[in-house]
Fold this protein.
Amino acid sequence: MHEIEQILVLFLAAVVLAAAARRAGAPYPVFLAIGGALLAFVPGAPSLHLPPELVLALFVAPILVDAGYDASLRDLRDNWAPLVGLVLVAVVLTTAAVAVVAHTLMPTLPWAAAVALGAIVAPPDAVAATAVLRPLRPPHRILAILEGESLLNDASALLIYRLAVGAVAAGGFSIQAVAPTFLLAVVGSLIAGPALGWLAQQVLVRVRHIPTAIILQFVWTVGVWQLAEHAGLSGVLTTVCFAMTMAQLAPATIPARIRIPTNAVWATVVFALNIFAFIFIGLQMRPIWMDMARAPLQQYLTVAAAVLATVIGVRIAWHMTFNAAVRWHNRRRGFSPPRPMLRPTVGSGLVISWAGMRGVVTLAAALALPADFPSRDLIVLTAFLVVFGTLMIQGFTLKPLLRALKLRDTDPVAVEEARGRERMLQAAFATLPAAPSPAIELVRKNLKMQLGRPLHDGSSPFTAFGVDYDRHYFAAVAAARQTLLAMRKSGDIGDDAFHTLENDLDWMEVSDPLRAANADATG
């Protein structure tokens, strides 16, 4: 029972620290990491050791599925250029620069191990960045880029990491030897992810028992990750493709009475995993520090500080260079985005450049190194200090930076929501008979009341008016849902607006007492 008590204590500490961070207006990942580090040195404090592969499957897979499900394919396409720059170019440049710096400061470090270190610290953790930015309502384009980056940068970094670790095991690195493996991992993940998403949807659409449906979703999430890893594919890329496929298929087939509790459970679980992950980062301070007892600590700290400066500097250098090139292009050719969005500016480039905090993926990848890996102690210590340093330095200053720059846009998500409500209301009215009746008039009144404004508490102001009312009302809601699906498919609205409006329709559907009773009786 001792382990259970430790986990309960850690969760309680994480919840308290997260609440304190909200009250202080500080980013909760930073509070949790600091709190975990302080807690690690308290006599008798919990000592938590998890297998690295469990850390990735437990923390990363569900968070990726949640983010991938909410990600907007349209917004990813609209911002493909900065995303490619951050996901591929910035990761490769950071990996290479860190490898050179580490090998220069410590010549005994093999090149393959130096590359592994670079890949470990290359991918930022956008959970930390968005935890800081979302409450401040930054321009939508900045959030879309950072959240899109978080979906894909782990895949590119972990692929390089896997190749570097394999090169150490094989005693050398050969492009001819690793290229087929690299291509197989990428192409295989792009095929396996959507295929598994389609298969999962065929299973889940037949499940009407809500607890069973929720459990199966988590089983699929971890199962897809494990299957990809065992097959030599990219767990990150496969899981992201799986989630995006589910996001395209599920809204048209999963009933509202299942989706509403499912969304609530997923939001709770993902929040719990996030807070636990960051306090877990802090708790690793004591075992890592104790492992350094016989190591050349001063040299290791010098390498770690240099790597920390490198990962911050490379991201700024690359993205501000890219930002300058984009602004030069816009001055020459004009700025004509496919839909309204914030024009790239020096300020927006600075925010994206500075939102490079590292997180649980970096630490888990370091801890996953084999025990006999060259300079493993140095790599683990460096990874921890990079995570902790970026959370401290950038986490505490990102919020003041955004406020100082005063970046604003026209809130395109709110504009799309308003347009979506108008179109859905028109589609709903079109299903109603032209002949007036008390039931039809009540349907019109309630549809206008429900679709004309957001539903904040899930309550419904209408009561049933007999079978005639129910038949017309739910036919109108179904027409509104089909219009909403068509608008997302055509790109008229993005997924942020889509999920808000979908949630409103779900509450409209399940809030009718007669309909809910019938669903329970047949489910």
About this structure: Residues 137 and 408 are 9 Å apart (CA to CA). Residues 412-522 form one domain. The chain has a mean pLDDT of 81.
